[in-house]
User: What shape does this take?
Amino acid sequence: MISSNKKKTWLWAALTLSLFSFLSPANQDPRVEVYNLRPWTHPTYTRIAVDIGKLREYTPGEVKAPDRIFVDVYQAKLNPILHNKTFLVKNDYISQIRIAQKTASTVRVVIDLDFKKISHYRVWHLFDPFRVVIDIYPHESPTKPLPPKPVKPPQPAKSGYTMIRQLGLGVQRIIIDPGHG
Assistant: This one.
């Protein structure tokens, strides 16, 4: 027969052992979470940032007919909020961006586009936090630059142009700090 103190000690030891086995690295998920995708279009290119948080291996690729660029992120899992999410892009060379869990340990980002309308693209990464960046450059700028507006010269004061206006400065107050020779 086991005494009550020995039962408590044995129960405590079993509980501690099961807790440590639960927290051991063998039971931890080695995948890191892909937690955000941020697309935005600049006047000369579109950038897509895939926020991962920790360094992970990734592989870019492309498919023709239909035209697509894709990036596979390995040892990754997709945040449930992003599962099978589609981002519509408002420019004439990219139609949409999709993100999904391709396999149990691979997340895939797919950009549907028109290769005839882009000059090139590049896939690279940044650290702290780790993220994969996809830049896509069109043949022509999606927004044509506007010609500069003509600048009106300032009107002279009653006594003529002041020194400030002649030099094109916007100074309204001058402070002199004595003692600096």
